[in-house]
Each structure stands twice: as structure tokens, then as C-alpha cells.
Amino acid sequence: MRRSFLILTFLLPLLFSCGGGGGGGGNPPSPPVSVTVSPASVSLRTGETQTFTAAVSGSPNPGVAWSVIEPGGGTITAGGTYHAPAQAGSFHVRATAAGDPSRWGEAVVTVTAVPTAARILLLHHSTGGVIWNGGLPAWFAAHNAAHGTAYQVSERSYPDAPYPWQNDPYDYWNLWVNPSGPADPARPGVHPLGTLAAAYDVIVFKHCFPVSDVEADTGSPDAASSVRRAENYKLQYAALKARLRQFPATRFVLWTGAARIQSETTAARAQRAADFFAWVKTQWDEPGDNIWLWDFRELETEGGLYLKGANSAGDSHPGAAFAQRVAPYLGQRLVNVIEGRGDTTRLDGNDGAVTTPACNGASLGPGASLQGYRPFPPDSPWNLDISAAPVDPDSAAIIAFIGASRGLHPDFGAGLWDGGPIGIPYQVVDGTQAKVRVRFTAYGDESDPGPMPVPPGAPVEGGPGSPGDRHVLVLDRSACMLYELYRAFPQADGSWNADSAAVWDLKSNALRPFGWTSADAAGLPIFPGLARYDEVAAGEIPHALRFTAPTTRRAYVLPATHWASSTTNPGAPPMGTRVRLKASVDVSGFPAQAQVVLRALKKHGMILADNGSAWYIGGAPDERWNNDALATLSSIKGSDLEVVQLGTVHTANPAGDPPAIASFTASPATVAPGGASTLSWSAAHATRFFVTPEVGWAPGSATVRPTASTTYTLTAQGPFGSATRSVTVTVAPAAPAVEPRR
Q1: In contact, 639 and 404? CB cutoff 8 Å
Q2: Alpha helix (H) ranges present in 414-526?
Q3: Could you give the C-alpha distances from 123 to 193, 347, 426, in angstroms and in order?
Q4: Judging by DSSP bridges, how do beta strands 34-38 and 53-57 pair with one another?
């Protein structure tokens, strides 16, 4: 889509180089260097973290050095991630300009103490008991020992006496709300809500499994009806929320309903259940009150409609192994609620505070769920919360240039468009996937060397016969690496031909060389900017999205590293421009799936990644998308958006020390047939390494087993270029067989 701009960029200077023109006089004085830190102020609990960003103006060097002014006021990483200390107080985070140490910007951090004790009660029928036995008490014991807290957790079968269950699974409406039923009766087995709220700081409860059998709505909702319809449940949930808010000193954590295995329900009923709980997460649950959710359903289904067989006990109950895996997530969710992070962390508790989710916990296959894993470190530009970042002074002009009256467009969805899936697909593989050769047909000098673990049948954007960009995205969950191909074509021998390819270490924020393109025109990775169904089903997209604009500037802002335009109009957006939805825009009336996207645009924004139609948002195809719901995004216009402060706009590639390879050796240099040799190297100013053939990405030394004498090439990359060096491993001929003496 955008490659023609590269040719035009090269030709235009030649076309105009013979003309006159020019300026008079001397150059104006350089503006003073200034540093702005975002957010400018933040309130944290002891031990919490916050990622800050710094924008440097008036200097060609965008770098800063981070520090905390007060001794004992916490620590901050080189990437700007601040860790609050164990004591409360007011502290200052400083970003000092690397190009002028006399200039800095500061942010104020107010740290308050977290609670150290809480009484927690888990109410359950059957499934809750399974999760309890999965290790919840042991998890809290370990957490208390490690953090000095005194959280007390207990459980109760509730109600613990015979109960008619006529309105299951929303029995808590009958127990605590229904004025004509047993609301707060002092009878055996049904302990009044007021009594429970007085005895416990946190009350956790869930409904039993038939919630997955949701019938079609009739248009005549009835809260007292025993028929399982979403319209009835919504009335019950509204009344239950009002009831729980009558006890503001008690925190309530409600489980999302469990799913059924596929053989025990129907697709239509399961879809209605999924839609209902999307409504619960995106509309019923509101920040700022005393009610939170634990998204148990997402953990069970892994983003699907049914309780996955691997998570089941053979029926519509969770298995013991699954309970052991997710009990820590419930524990972490409860701690997050107690310590004030309930509205800012993941609903399933799988938010990184627990040792998982790790990259290797992602599911396998095309369009697979990442199980809560978020690519790149927390301080990656993709993962920053920019909701409080300053607005760029040129915001209005840039928005108008792209299209103030143009609406957002989800460039993803369910079904087909022009014969291909709607969106950019991806596939998750593991370390068993064979690496294959990738031949570069256009931009090999700006591509990362292979081989790469791209399956022969990896999904291609637009389908196998597409004439378009034909992106192929593969995530290797074992190595936590991302491989992205542009204009990719599978070959009969299992290899691929591609115009270009880029490799990304998802554990690092290291940049590829300035000035290099990638599978996207801006030199950015594609995958971390896609809207994915598994995240929307979980209730949150925890990262920025990618978008396109018809015309971009011959410039870029980090994290972009490449432009694809000849336009120097200052109103045109440079690649990497970050845009967010204005905080004042009310999104409460949008359908559930659209709301999740819009909340992400407020918190993380979207990053300009390619030339294309105005405000097209990238996403992955999935048959579970509701195209009608996504289409409502078009009512959000460019005028509802604003540009986050750009920082340094690069109209020339930054200069610095290029990589220098000091040594590249093979030990041993000669091997017998079938033998192994270890390749080792040392290099300066390099952060990324590749070895060809056979190895590909190589973060450290590499072991090779050549079948014939082979010359291996090391490519060392850094932000200011790349370097290569070669070494040969000789395979000695096999020794002749010796006849035994007779």
C-alpha cells in the first residue's frame, strides 16, 4: 500500500534540485531545551509502579536520564518505570535532558500506605469450592509472608441449607434483593447480607453454571421470571448493584458466570451468554464504586464460547489442574481490589503481578488467545497509559489534515471481504516449529535475516490469493519472538518469498535501525497494535492500537523509525503520531465490543503506522466479532480525537555509533560429520544479533551442526545501523573404515 511513496521520496529531490529558491539571512536562534514529564502528578499505593514518559523539545537528542530526587523516595528504571517505596510520602521524579543536563522536567508522586489486613469471605455453591481447593488459602499465606500483610480468607457454602433454586443462576437476587422472596431473612443457611457485610471487608460470590444456557430475549423483561434470558438478568443485576452499594464499607467481588462444555449447550445459547457477560464487564460494572468483577469466564473459555476440555473435569465444572492454575489469579484480583488497583488492573487477575501470564502461556494456532500476555515490557511505548499526557500544540491542524469529519473505521471483523478475512491474521507457534528460509524480493537491505519459524500454512492477510499487502505474522511463544513478513508468498519447498521481514524480541524495547522500514511503513511492529478478540472478551485492550492516514509527513516520531512520504507539510502527521479519544467523549451508549475499543483509545491511544484510509484501526479477524457493533465506531469523528504531544520530530535519521563486531569465532572450527560447533562473538553498540544460515535470531552464542562446510554470517544491529562478519566451520571428511585384522 505504501511502498510507492519510497520511490517518490527518492525522485522528488532530483526533480526540484535544479530550481532556485532559497532563504536570506542567517539562521534563527535555536529554541531553549525543555523537558516535559507525563503524567505531571500521580497518586500511588506503597509498592505500586507507574511508567512516566518524557518529551524533549529544542534538542536533536530525545534521550533523558531518570532519577528520584528524595533519598528513599522509590526507584526508577532507565525506561521511566517508577517503583513506589514502602513508606508513604510525597516524592519527585525527574527526567534530565541527555543533550543538556542543565534542563529537566519533574513529576510529583504522592504515595499512600496500602491496607495490611482484610477479612475476605468466598461464598460458593460448587465451582467456587473447586477453585478454593486449587490453592487459594496457600496463595494468601505465601502472599502474606512475602508482603507483610495479614489478609484472612475463608469460604462458606452459601446458602448452606436447602433452597428452592427456582431462579438460578441469579440466586443472589432472590437472596439479597427480591422483596417478595427470602431477601435477608434470618433463617438457617441464608445469612443476611447486612450481617455478612458487617463481619467481612471483602465478599466474593459467584453464580452456578447454568448461566451458559441463555434463551433469546422477548422484549418483555421480568426481573422475577425464572426463564434464563439476558433481558431478565439485566434487571436483576441492576437491582443487585443498587443493593450492594448500600454497604459502601464492604468491597464486593462478583465472578462472571461459568461456561458449559460444548456438548452440554448450543452455539446460540453460548453466544448469548458470552454477549451477556460482555455487557456485565463493559456496562454494568462501573469504576468508583464498591463492586468489582473477577472474569472467571474468560479464564475458562480462553476467549471462546465454551469451557475448554483441558480446563474441565469432564463436564461443565472446572478441573483440578485448571483450579490450581487460576486460584492465584483470584488471589491477585482480590489483593488488587483491597490495595486500590481494582479499576486499573485486569479483570481476570492475570495482570503480571502473578508470575504468569508469560509469553509461553499463549495458546497455539491461528488467531489464538494470548491468555492475558501483553507483548513488550510494561514501559514499552505500546503499553503506556497516555490518558493524562499533554496535547500537542499542532493537534487541531493534524486532526484537520487527516480528516476532522471522517469517522473511525474498524479494519477488522467477522466474515469475508473481497474473498478474504477482514483484518490482519496471526499465528502462535512454539519452539517445535521448524525455521525456514525467507527470500527477500524488494527490501532485503532493511530486513532481518532468517531463517524464521513460519509454518507453510500460516494465514496470509487477505487470503491465499490476495494481491494486497499479504502480511504474515507469527509469534513464537517459546522464545517470545515476533516475526512479521510483508508481501509474503509460500513456496512449494516450505520456504517463503517476501518483500521484507522484521523480527522483534517481545522481551525488549530495543529498536531496529533508524531509517529502516518493517512489515509496516513506519518501521513499527504490527501485532502489538492489533485489536484482538481475546482482549475485548476480557474487557480491556491494554495497549495502543495502530491506524492509518491517507497522507503522512516525511518525518517520524519514536517509536516509529521510518517515513514513507515526500510531503513536508507541517500539518501532515509524521509516522508514529499518537492520537487518543478525548476524555469528554461519552462511550456508555456504545455496544460492548465498541466500548472496549473506545476505552483503549482513551487510555492508550493509537499510533500512526502506515499510509491508508483515514482513521482505519488495525485488528485481527475473528468470527466472534459483531460487525454491527464495531460499525458504530464510525460515529466517532476525527474531531473527537486529539494528538498527544509529539516530542522530537525526526526529519533526518539520528546519528550515533554504529555496531562494531570485535570478534566472531567458531569452536571448534573443524568438526566431524554430525559434530557441533559453538559460535561466539563480541560487539559494541549492538542490541540485536542474527546468524545465517541455520540459526536466525541469536541473542547469545549459537550452536550449529553443519552437514557440510558452511560459512556463517553474524549480523549485529543497533539503532544506528548494522554490521556483519563471517566465519567458516569446516566439516572434515569421515575417516576411512579400517579392516579388522584376522
Answers
A1: yes
A2: none
A3: 12, 19, 40
A4: antiparallel
Contact (CB, 8 A) for 426 and 473:
yes
H/E stretch holding 662: strand 660-667
Contact (CB, 8 A) for 612 and 564: no
| 348 three-state secondary structure | coil
**Distance of CA 86 to CAs 82, 147, 148, 724, Å?**
13, 10, 11, 48
Give the chain's end-to-end CA distance (angstroms, integer).
75
State the cell numbers at 16.
526540484
d(CA 382, CA 96): 23
How far, in Å, CA of 560 to CA of 599, rounded? 23
Q: Output the nine-digit C-alpha cell for 524.
A: 513499527
- Identity of the amino acid at 191: H
Do the Cβ atoms of 596 and 624 come closer than 8 Å? Answer: no
User: 268-300 pLDDT, tens per residue?
Assistant: 888 888 888 888 888 898 887 899 999 998 899
pTM (2 d.p.): 0.58
Q: What is the pLDDT of residue 29?
A: 56
Contacts for 135-141: CB closer than 8 Å, 24+ residues apart: 135/323, 135/324, 135/327, 135/328, 136/327, 136/330, 136/331, 139/327, 139/328, 139/331, 140/331
For residues 432, 434, 435 and 439, what is the CA-based torsion angle, rounded to 10 degrees? -150
Mean pLDDT of 153-179: 70
Closest CA to 629 of 547, 533, 542: 533
**Nearest residue to 527 via CA among 619, 435, 611:** 619
* Peptide bond preceding 381 in cis form (omega within 30 of 0): no
Cβ neighbour number for residue 469 with a 10 Å cutoff: 22
Are the C-beta atoms of 89 and 66 separated by less than 8 Å?
Answer: no
* 679 and 712 Cβ atoms separated by less than 8 Å: yes
- Scored b (16 or more CB within 10 A) or e, 221-246 reads eebebeebbbbbbbbbbebbbebbee
Could you give the CA distance from residue 633 to residue 638 in angstroms, rounded to a whole number?
11
Cell 454494568, located at residue: 284
Amino acid making up residue 660: A
Residue 556 DSSP label:
B
For residue 597, the surrounding DSSP H or E stretch is helix 592-603
SS (H, E, C) 532-584: CHHHHHHCCCCCCEEEEECCCCCCECCCCCCCCCCCCCCCCCCECCEEEECCC
Tell me what pLDDT residue 169 has.
Answer: 46
Cell readout for 656 is 550515533
For residue 365, the SS3 value is strand
